[in-house]
Amino acid sequence: MARPQEAAAPAKKTETAAMMTTVQTETAAPLPAPATVYRDSWFDKLAIGYLSRNLQEASGLKNEKDGYESLIDAALAISRIFSLDKQSEIVTQALERALPSYILTMVMESEVEGRKEKNVVYIPKCRFLESTNCVGMCTNLCKIPCQKFIQDSLGMKVYMSPNFEDMSCEMIFGQQPPEDDPALKQPCFRTKCFAKQNHGVNCSI
What's the short name of a Pfam family annotated to this entry (predicted)? Predict the structure, then answer.
């Protein structure tokens, strides 16, 4: 009688293990989407470093990081320390430092059949938004100051329309940002905001 009982025991253990595997599979959290891998060329690195240095100089906040990490670190520091209005002012100053006035005078308007064309530049995935996953930083350190800079320095209306679902963005040249801008009503990603969770950034917009 002992041998049948011994033979049945492993079968029960196997059945229990199978049930546990099924439960674990059903309750496992979905895996996050893989981060985009960026392979910066030498020119990309040069431009990123140049913009980062200008951002640090405009804010008075230095960091010792290199490449894109340096740019993100500068943006995070600005977002933590300064008010929303000051954030926009600092970024605008950095853009003015990065693009000297003699370059801006080379920009010319174009007309097609007597009317100005509305041009749309589509960015499939915004690297800045993907790196921070922060609505407030996207709006206050990119969208608003860039719109203002292009309007004031180039004399060209532009509306930047970020898509917070797929992290793409449209830059619509020739169009004034709407007063009822949906990007300014986008709620904070409080549960998945990298900037808030990892760097203590105030996510208000």
Answer: D27-like_C
Mean pLDDT of all residues in 84-88: 91
Query: Can you give the pTM of this predicted structure?
Result: 0.69
The string of pLDDT tens digits covering residues 38-76 is 888 988 899 999 999 999 999 999 999 999 999 999 999
Q: Which amino acid is present at 17?
A: A
> Is 76:94 a contact under the CB 8 Å cutoff?
no
The count of other CB atoms within 10 Å of the CB of residue 35 is 8
pLDDT in tens, 159-194: 999 999 899 999 998 889 999 999 988 888 766 776
Count of alpha carbons within 13 angstroms of residue 169, beta-carbon side: 19
CA distances in angstroms from 44 to 12, 49, 51, 141, 190, listed in the order given: 61, 8, 11, 20, 31
Ranges of each domain in the chain: 42-104+118-198
Q: How far apart, in whole angstroms, are the C-alpha atoms of residue 121 and residue 2? A: 78
